[in-house]
Structure formats: structure tokens, C-alpha cells
Give the backbone structure.
Amino acid sequence: ALGKGSDLEKAFATLALVYNNNADTEGKLSRAETKSLLQTQFWHFIQGQENKPKYQEIISDLDEEPESKIDFEDFMMTLVMLTLMSDLLQEIKNVKTTK
């Protein structure tokens, strides 16, 4: 559908597809499924973050009520928070690209 889309559009389309492929029929993920998805699909961003208080807060929140559901918007907010605190983001920012 986004064959001619920008890199950013393709990235978001991929994100939506991964979420939708793991979501239930209501389009939601349990907190336990969210945690698992983050650990399998977002590993490089969360690697080494285990001792950071914000990371511990996010994971603790997912562990509190593992069966309660989150929607795509909450999933995106979680990804943004984890990305912003990631050491990998700092490495990415230091990479210079030319077009």
C-alpha cells in the first residue's frame, strides 16, 4: 500500500502491521503481550536500559495488571518513551547520512 511512501511512512506502516498482527479481535494487546512484543521486537532499543528508573517504571506498569488491555495509542506512547531514553537513539543521532 505504501510502495511509494516515504521512509517514515513505511516505518509507521510496519509498526502498525506488527501491532495489528499481535492484537486481539478488539485491536488491543494485553500488558503481558505488550511486554513480550517489546522484548522481542524492540530489543535493540531497550537493551541496557534495565537499571534506568523510567524503564523500570514502564515495565512495572506492564507487570501490574498483565491481563488488562492497551490500545494502539498507548502502545505508541510506550514506544516513544522507550525510544527517547534509549542509548541506541543517541548512537543513531550521531550517524550522519547523505542523500
